[in-house]
Amino acid sequence: MVAIRLPYVLRIGDRGTKANLIIFCTVNDVGSFGNMLKGAIGSKMDVEARSRMPALESTVLFSYGFRPFFLLSGIFAALAIAIWIPEFYGDITVRTAFSPIAWHAHEMLYGYLSAAMVGFLLTAVPNWTGRLPVRGLSLAALAGLWLLGRIAILASDLTGWLLAMVVDCSFLFVVLVVIAREIVAGKNLKSLKVAVLVSVVLVGNIVFHMEARNHGPIENGMRIGIAGMMLLVMVIGGRIIPSFTQNWLARQPAGRMPVAFNRFDVVIIAVSAIALLGWIILPDNITIGEVLVAAGVLHFLRLARWAGDRTWSDRLVFILHIAYLFVPIGFLLLAASILFGIPQSAAIHAWTIGAMATLTLAVMTRATLGHTGRSLQANFGTHVVYAAIVAAAITRVSAALFSTQTDVLLRLSALVWIVAFVTFVLVYGPMLVRPKVSAK
Questions:
Q1: Claim to verify: residue 213 and residue 309 sit in the same structural domain
Q2: Terminal Cα distance for the chain, rounded
Q3: How many domains does the chain have?
Q4: Most C-beta atoms within 10 A of its C-beta, which of 99, 125, 223, 382?
Q5: Residue 128 in contact with residue 40, Cβ under 8 Å?
Q6: In a domain, 235, yes or no
Q7: Structure confidence by residue, pLDDT tens digits, 275-286
Q8: Residue/partner pairs of 21-24 with CB below 8 Å, 24 or more apart
């Protein structure tokens, strides 16, 4: 049995309330989290809280959760696709227990997207509550645990699927415990829905490993993970998109404004959750296909209520609406795969690239600008990132729909995907590793 150790103790809580987690490893000195969603990108911690931070906060890269995880997710997203395309076509061999498609699906869903999601949550939750964030050695240990998961998956044919599963799933488990602990400690129980959705993603990851060992099928683990991530997109996107749109339109000439989160949104999310649960359990059921159609139509109506058509001139806001547009598109494509037999891959990539990857890049760019003291303006590099990721989504969906052009479109989609993330790393990487500057 191979043992992997990290030289830290992960301590959850603040003064007087400590709970140590041991995963193979121990991790030292994690701060606190807690509340919920609106001021997620750009607010400040109070001076007293900063005075209690450990000395290691002076390490810029590990001074806030968004810095290492946005950087790592950007690098990994480009590198993983650069490896996967030649692996898929048989030009190289990766020593993993997963099949090429399973490795690709897992590392995009539970590798890249999980890192981007955690970077957002580790940054947003302290801003929602004013409690201490994870930083210093604790943040470095979490980032290291995520990186160990990537290595374990890549070498799982050598180490065995069980060790790879334990190492990989430990990351989301630790994140879940931290988030849930701080939400409860902050007495903000309404925010537990975020922890619940993270737990869905964790369960999906475990199921994925159980199915993928020895190159087995991955349908259930993939569907659970996609459903959990999509519900996070609906919940978080449903808060930040109208909020940021409202803030920008308030400075423009009078006109239609976005509708704030209300019961209509709750109904839409509930219908979507039912549709996704049905898809997990009965993926070929006609009735489920009809519910997916209803969910898709409702999400089109939801998006129309947010006045995104008025935000064209601010690309940082407009891209949020473009990302969410792929939510109803994905629902309708998935329904069409059940009702009319079109390839399900079209729906999956409309969601994973169009909705999830585009939204994460939109948030990563905006959060990096705001939290590093820069003005919220999209430069040329940012426009390249947005155009490339949207092009990646369109070409990948098209590759599934037009079988005679699949190879060309698949390679083109991979190319523009890599362009999007390499450009993100080149433009935003220096901001992520350098100290905050004065706002321009």
A1: no
A2: 55
A3: 2
A4: 125
A5: yes
A6: no
A7: 999 999 999 999
A8: 21/174, 21/177, 23/145, 23/170, 23/173, 23/174, 24/166, 24/167, 24/170
Task: Tell me: do 140 and 19 sit in the same domain.
Answer: yes
Q: Exposed/middle/buried for 333, CB within 10 Å: 0-12, 13-18, 19+? A: buried
Find the domain containing 164 and state its range: 1-40+64-217
For residue range 103-159, list pLDDT tens digits in order. Answer: 999 999 999 999 999 999 988 887 776 677 788 898 999 999 999 999 999 999 888
239 Cβ partners below 8 Å, 6+ apart?
37, 38, 261
Residue 59 lies in a domain: no
Residue 137, token pair as written in the block: 């050695």
With 70 as the cut, is the pLDDT of residue 184 above it? yes
Place of tokens 């369109």: 394
Model confidence at 52: pLDDT above 70: no
Phi, psi at 148, each rounded to 5°: -60, -35
Q: Are residues 200 and 108 in the same domain?
A: yes
CA dihedral 107, 113, 118, 121 (to 10 degrees): -170
Residue 18 has pLDDT above 50, yes or no: no
Report if residue 25 sits inside a domain.
yes
Considering the domain architecture, whether residues 410 and 330 belong to the same structural domain is answered as: yes
Name beta bridge partners: 10: 21
User: Of 187, 217, 247, which residue is a domain's last?
Assistant: 217
Q: Are residues 425 and 287 in the same domain?
A: yes
Query: In terms of domains, do 212 and 343 share one?
Result: no
* pLDDT value at residue 214: 66
* The pLDDT of residue 183: 76
Rounded to an integer, the average pLDDT of 314-326 is 98
| Burial environment of residue 154 by CB neighbours within 10 A (0 to 12, 13 to 18, 19 or more) | buried
- Considering the chain, what percentage of its residues have pLDDT values greater than 70? 85
Answer with the one of 201, 217, 233 that is the final residue of a domain: 217
Residue type, 352: T
370: in domain: yes
Q: How far is CA 429 from the centre of its chain?
A: 18
Helix (H) or strand (E) holding 11: strand 10-12
Range in 110-119, 188-197, 369-378 with the lowest mean pLDDT:
188-197
Asked if residue 117 and residue 206 are part of one domain, the reply reads yes
